[in-house]
Amino acid sequence: MVVWRPNPGPQTWLLQCPVEDILFGGARGGGKTDGLLGDWIQHSGRHGRHARGIIFRKTMPELEDLIERSKELYQPLGAVYHEQKKTWIFPNGARLRMRYLERDQDAARYKGHQYTWIGFEEIDTWESPEPIDKLQACLRSPHNVPCVMRASANPGGPGHDWVKARYITPAPPLTPFKDGDITRVFIPSRLADNPKLSNPDKYTAKIKASGPEWLVKAWLEGDWSGPPVGGIIDPNWIRSYTTEPLLGSIDIAADLAFSLKQTADRTAIGAFGMAAGGEVCFKPDIRIGRLNTMDSVEAILDLAEAYDANRLFVGKDMITGSIGPFLEKRMEERKVWLLIHEIPQHQDQLLRSHSFIARTQQGKVLWPEGDLFRKVIYPELVSYDGKGEQHDDIVAMAAHACMGLDMMDEYRAPAKPKYENPDKKRWAELDRRRNHGKTTAIKPLFGK
C-alpha cells in the first residue's frame, strides 16, 4: 500500500538529496510540510531503530496542525503516536519527537541530546538563527548514521534576512555550497510544483488579497529579493511578547476603511494598554480586514466590552462621517461607553506615524507573538515606506494609538481639566463598571 508519494520535482529532489543541511520551499502551497514529513519517513526507513528525529514549529497551535498531518501519513505505516510525550514510534524502532520552540532560550533544554534528523517547519518564523544553531549542534549519532537537517521557509517572515543570507544568497538554487564545515543547498518549491493542492485558483486569490505587493510576490513565486529590510522601521526595533505584561487602563485604536474592494486598504482595530515601563502593548485580538461600517462598529464595541476599554482613538475624517452617528447609537443600545477622540489626519503619512515610529525605535511598542504577528503585522511594519505604496493599516492603527497617548499627555498638563462637562450618563456607566457596579462621584477622565 502506498501511503504517500513525493510530487515529481522539488519533493522528489529533497528526498534524493544527500546534502547535510537543506532549505526546502520558498513559496506558499509548495508542499513543504509533506516534504519534511516524507523525508523523515525515508530517513527512518533507511536507519531503523538508530534513527532519532525531532521536528519543531514556533508555537503549540502550529505544532498541532503539523501533528494532525503527520497522523494522516504515519498511522497507516503502523507508527504509534504517544500524545503525552508527543513522540512517534515506528515499527522498526525509529522515533520522531514533535516539539514547539516559542522562546529562543528554550533551545538550551536540548543540550546533550542526540538526533540523526532535525526538522524546522517554517524556519523563517524564528527571528534569530541562534536557537537553530544550538539545536543543530545536537546532530550526532553513536551508530554512524548520516545526520541531516531539513527546514522549510517562506520569504517575508521575522527571520527573512538571516535565512536569506544563510541559504539563498551564497549560491543559486539547487547548487550545494560549503559554509564552514557544513554543506548547504536551497531547493525551491512553488505552488505550481504541488499538483495535490485542492482548488489552487482559490488559494492563489486568497494570497493575492493577503498583504503588500512584495509579500504576495514572495509567497506566490518564492521571491526572496523583496526586502523587508531597508524600510523606515528597522526589524531590530520590533518587539513581541508571549507573556503579556501587566497593563493599566485599556483603550481602542482604529484605522477605518470602508471600501470592500480587494485593492483597497483594510480596517485595523486593536485594544492596547500601557505597561509599567511605558510600552504601548497591543492585545492579541487585533481585527483586520475589509469591513463595512456596521462590522467596524461592532468590532470596536466587541473589543471595548471584552477589555472594559475607556477611550477610542480614531481618525477625524472617519468619525465625522456616517460612522459617528451609528457608533453613538450602537453604544446606547449595547450600553458600551467609549469616550471618542478624533485623531488629526495629516496628509503626510510619515508625519502621521512619527510618534509610533519613535516609540518603536525605543522598543516601546509590544505586539502579541503568534501567527498574525509573523505573517501580517511584522511584514507590514518592515515594508512600511511612509508613502502609501504599501499596506499601512496596522501602522495607521498604531499611529492613532500613539498620537492619542501624546494628546493625553497634553491634557494632563493643565491644572484644570480640558473636558469639564462630560456626558454624565456615560461617565456614570464607566464609573459603575470600573468599580464593580458601585457608582462613585463623576470625575473627568483627564487632568488631576
What's the structural blueprint in terms of helices and strands?
Blueprint: H1 10-16, E1 21-26, H2 32-47, E2 52-57, H3 60-74, E3 80-82, E4 87-89, E5 95-100, E6 117-120, H4 130-136, E7 148-153, H5 160-168, E8 177-179, E9 182-189, H6 200-208, H7 213-221, E10 239-241, E11 247-255, E12 267-275, E13 280-282, E14 287-289, H8 293-307, E15 311-315, H9 316-319, H10 323-334, E16 339-343, H11 349-352, H12 354-361, E17 365-368, H13 371-383, H14 393-412, H15 424-434
Parallel strand pairs: 1-7, 1-9, 2-5, 2-6, 6-7, 10-17, 11-15, 13-17, 15-16
Antiparallel strand pairs: 3-4, 4-5, 8-9, 11-12, 12-13, 12-14
Helix pairs in contact: 1-2, 2-3, 8-10, 12-14
Outline the structure in words.
This protein has 448 residues and is an alpha/beta fold. The protein folds into two domains: 212 residues, Rossmann fold (3-Layer(aba) Sandwich); 179 residues, Nucleotidyltransferase, domain 5 (2-Layer Sandwich). It has a nine-stranded mixed β-sheet, sandwiched between helices. Strands 10, 11, 12, 13, 14, 15, 16 and 17 form an eight-stranded mixed β-sheet that branches. The chain is elongated, with a radius of gyration of 25 Å. 40% of the residues are buried.
